[in-house]
Amino acid sequence: MKLLILIIALSSAVLAGSYGKGDVAPVTDELYKKECGSCHFAYQPGLLPSNAWNKMMLNLGDHFGSDASLAKEDYDSILAYLNKNSAEKFANYKRSAKILNSLKAKEVPESISKTPYMIKKHREIRENLITQKEVKGLFNCIACHTTAEKGIYSERDIRIPNFGRWED
Ligand code: HEC
Ligand code: HEC
Q1: Closest ligand 1 atom number to CA of residue 47
Q2: 123-139: per-residue pLDDT in tens?
Q3: What is the distance, to the nearest Å, from the Cα of residue 108 to the centroid of all Cα atoms in its chain?
Q4: 112 CB under 6 A from ligand 1?
Q5: Are 147 and 40 in contact (CB under 8 A)?
Q6: CA angle, 94 as apex, 31 and 19 as ends, to 5°?
Q7: The pTM is what?
Q8: In the predicted model, is pLDDT for residue 11 greater than 60?
Q9: Which of 26, 40, 32 is nearest to 57 (CA)?
Q10: pLDDT at 16
Q11: Distance from Cα 161 to the centre of ligand 1, integer Å
């Protein structure tokens, strides 16, 4: 009897742990949230490998057609934060590992939505649901993933505007 209780206690602890952990590590840096979350939500660093963040940070003056330049001090701090928390560092988070594993050996992706894993995961969504004005593009994760800011991208939390829940 005691053993049974122990087993139940242990397995629920394991389940709670794996649920609470989410898909990628949530953003913890306030400066990053402020500077890199003003035009779009602050993407978790664990969504890209460091080589991709470094490449993006080299050209903030022409960041997808926008000027996202930073003061030197903020730049250094954000670059360090991204490198410390990139996908390689969080390979124990399910989605970081899958994004990494989908890349070829020397591949440096231009964006999160252009990684092979993301393309594969979103290829069944009708194009007009992605381009509609309430979403604009795949870059706008929070338009469909209601818990994206917590680093949780599970299917049960998806609500696509003008479509609703996603059921496979
Ligand atoms: C001035 C507005 C602006 C700021 C500030 C800004 N971005 Fe962006 N960012 C954009 C735009 C515009 C896009 C392109 C969206 C699209 O695909 O049309 C983008 C796209 C991205 C993407 C690719 C999303 C995808 O589709 O995978 C990443 C990653 C990103 N930004 C990271 C950052 C980081 C890191 C910072 C802070 C250093 C930052 N952004 C600051 C405007 C901004
Ligand atoms: C137009 C709505 C929409 C946008 C925008 C969007 N997603 Fe998704 N995403 C979905 C849907 C729907 C699925 C489930 C697809 C399937 O299972 O066939 C999904 C699946 C995923 C999955 C896999 C979840 C699982 O349980 O397998 C991840 C991770 C993910 N999206 C991350 C992102 C990120 C990061 C962004 C932004 C760069 C993003 N998504 C933008 C709708 C969207």
Answers
A1: 29
A2: 999 999 999 999 999 99
A3: 16
A4: yes
A5: no
A6: 85
A7: 0.91
A8: no
A9: 32
A10: 40
A11: 21
